[in-house]
Design brief:
Layout (H helix, E strand, L loop, with lengths): L13 E11 L8 E8 L6 E7 L4 H24 L14 E8 L22 H14 L9 E9 L12 E10 L4
Parallel strand pairs: 4-5
Antiparallel strand pairs: 1-6, 2-3, 4-6
Helix pairs in contact: 1-2
Length: about 180
């Protein structure tokens, strides 16, 4: 007989906030790739398929996330150690948790005086917004690899319609290390 999950003896984990990242700019989902032909690698001579991102907004968003992450890492280091990092900061490793609040552009046709939800294609799929954001954080070398993130809480909202919504499109990202967890 199996027991319900809530009755299992699961070791408690604690989390410690390690990084808060605020990104200003329009979040973009990392979607599908499209085929753009074959190319020969000049160094190896191998022929491989070329796949390009379909959305032109993804690269600018990832670049904004990378820049904001770099700034947040430097700020966190200064607050913790009282100076600029010599040679950069070490990336976070081990099990990580992330909380993200995406503030997306509110359509002009949406009601102005009541709460609405960003459920249109224009706002992007939340899982694809997470993918592009995690890749931007990994590009800044704030985390060893985005596979280290074991828990995610993500919210998609319009400006002013959530306690943590930004006044314009962007995202607030918090990264926690989990202690008490076994590898």
């Amino acid at each position: 007989m199996t027991r319900p999950i809530r009755d299992l003896d699961v070791p408690a984990t604690e989390r410690q906030l390690r990084l808060t990242i605020v990104v200003h700019g329009r979040p973009a989902p990392q979607g599908s790739k499209k085929y753009a032909g074959h190319r020969r690698n000049s160094a190896s001579g191998r022929i491989s398929a070329v796949l390009v991102e379909q959305s032109k907004r993804v690269k600018p968003w990832r670049d904004l996330v990378t820049a904001a992450t770099t700034t947040a890492m430097t700020t966190a280091h200064i607050q913790q150690y009282g100076g600029y990092p010599a040679g950069g900061t070490l990336p976070l490793a081990g099990p990580l948790e992330a909380e993200i609040v995406f503030t997306v552009l509110k359509p002009a046709s949406a009601p102005k005086r009541r709460r609405t939800w960003p459920t249109t294609r224009h706002s992007g799929d939340i899982d694809k917004l997470i993918r592009s954001t995690f890749d931007g954080i990994a590009d800044a070398r704030a985390i060893v690899d985005d596979s280290r993130i074991v828990s995610v809480t993500a919210t998609k909202t319009f400006p002013g319609e959530h306690p943590e919504a930004l006044p314009e499109p962007g995202a607030i990202i918090r990264v926690y290390t989990l202690t008490g967890a076994t590898r």
